[in-house]
Amino acid sequence: MFGENLKRKYALTDKGLKNTKTGAIWTVIVNLIMMAGMGILYYLMQNYISTLTDSAPLPNAWIFIGLVAAFVILSFVTHLQQYHNTYGLVYREIKDTRISLAERLRKLPLGYFGKRDLADLTETIMGDVNRLEHVWSHCLGYLYGAYISTAIIAVMLFIYDWRMAIACLWGVPVAFVLLFGSRKIQKSKSEKLKADALAVSDNIQESLENIREIKATNREKDYLDRLNKKIDKFEKTNIEGELVIGLFVNAATVIMRLGVATTILTGAYIVLNKGVDFMLMFMFLMVITRIYAPFDQSLALMAEMFVSQVSASRLNEISDTPTAEGAEVFNPDGHDIEFKNVSFSYDGKPVLKNVSFTAKEGEVTALVGPSGSGKSTCARLAARLWDISEGIITVGGVDISKVDPEVLLTDYSMVFQDVVLFDDTVMENIRLGKHGATDEEVLAAAKAANCDEFVNKLPFKYDTPIGENGAKLSGGERQRISIARALLKNAPVVLLDEATASLDVENETKVQGALSRLLNEKTVLVIAHRMRTVSGADKIIVLKEGSVAEQGSPEELLGREDSIFRHMAMLQADSSKWSL
């Protein structure tokens, strides 16, 4: 039970917990050996005093030299083992922790990332893990080792003299009661500091991402003023937090060190009253020079331990989020996509309600409707980028909730409205659609997506770097690369979400022609606002307020006087295309 609580409190893995226990054991051994060094000194002083007072012979010098040599060797070996088991193992494990965290994030449904800020996730992966690494390596093993070794030494001191033992040790529990009693205050300050730090990061990220809009609207001063206020707030919170934490830590250190004074006073009183001899008092004075040493580092880092619990809770939140699991095999009977009474809620707000339709293989099925009606949500649910709340979605008769998302997506090509490109060449960005694709295959897909026109104007053509997320390209050019990537994959299911939204009419016509030729015999789900984009669809699904309002072929829906689709078509600027 204690081990499980420790794992949760500091986000330890099973291996990390084992390393902490091993580090604590070696810390106990080191502390006891260091205390044994005080015993050697006590042995020498006792024999020297006996020689002075009782004319007893001095012990053989080689005995003392042998004891010192044994102490030095044991001290070196145990310190080496302690370092290896507190620092070395943790530094190796931290790599595994980051990899396992990234692996966990990879398996989480995309809906999770819609709820979490990217700056927040980055801080968790980098900042929180770094903070926990320092606690794992510098504090946990030392602290719990100090608890155990001090308990062992305390028992021995009480055996010698309980009065001197109390005078020597009373400050330790009082100091830790003070620290742990202030834990809630310190944790509250840590959480506030973390929130203010994330607010600064968010503002900086937002400013960099929207620098064009900020400059275009002359809002530089407003953004800088807002950022300065957040930085000032963060600095104020940081100073307050350090002041409060420093106050408690220093108070605990002072209280613990008062044990030195009480040991001297108590020892002097007892010696004067002949309650103990001077050598026993001398032993306690030597012990007290070492008894607090194991806690020095732990006390200094105790505040960081409390702060790290906030970081650990953030890592635990990721670990506790259910991953999208499923079978590693996907063998559908065809690729018809069928929604059966599908409902979906996002943050408790209903988005889809009892949606049912079928997108047949070899046909183009278009989802249309007002903004916010659930079109893009349907596309993402069809690819299991999110998991549904109720109902069932099948592809070729297979329930996709039972299939591992990565296995499922091998049969999908997707072009969404928000294009994601990498800071690489045009060629490599398109090649992402199919691992190991030849240059000829890449060029064929690029040509089909009408990329040649703008790529041939670039300095190095297809070997031209395009910048972060395609910063050197226009919106339409970026979208054509995304289409080429999907065409290269040549998957049996194709999802197009506003795939031609950034293209002018001429290029849209060219890309539509390429799509109609290359998407033959595939299951195609198209989401679009332009009626022109879906004019060649085999089936139209009209969504309204998260429900299917009507469905049928374009001709059938246009022939109905009360059809929502007919009304939308009439409102479009190119409504003259339709035979109303």
Q: What's the quick description here?
A:
With 580 residues, the protein is of the alpha/beta class. It is built from 21 helices and ten strands. The chain is elongated, with a radius of gyration of 35 Å.
Keywords:
four-stranded antiparallel sheet, ABC transporter transmembrane region fold, alpha/beta, 2 domains, 580 residues, elongated, 10 strands, disordered C terminus, six-stranded mixed sheet, Rossmann fold, 21 helices
Lay out the secondary structure.
Layout: H1 2-10, H2 14-54, H3 61-107, H4 110-115, H5 118-160, H6 162-169, H7 171-181, H8 183-209, H9 211-216, H10 220-272, H11 278-291, H12 293-320, E1 337-346, E2 349-359, E3 364-368, H13 375-382, E4 390-395, E5 398-399, H14 405-408, E6 412-415, H15 426-431, H16 439-448, H17 452-455, H18 475-489, E7 493-497, H19 505-518, E8 523-527, E9 539-544, E10 547-552, H20 554-558, H21 564-571
Parallel strand pairs: 3-8, 3-9, 6-7, 7-8
Antiparallel strand pairs: 1-2, 1-4, 4-5, 9-10
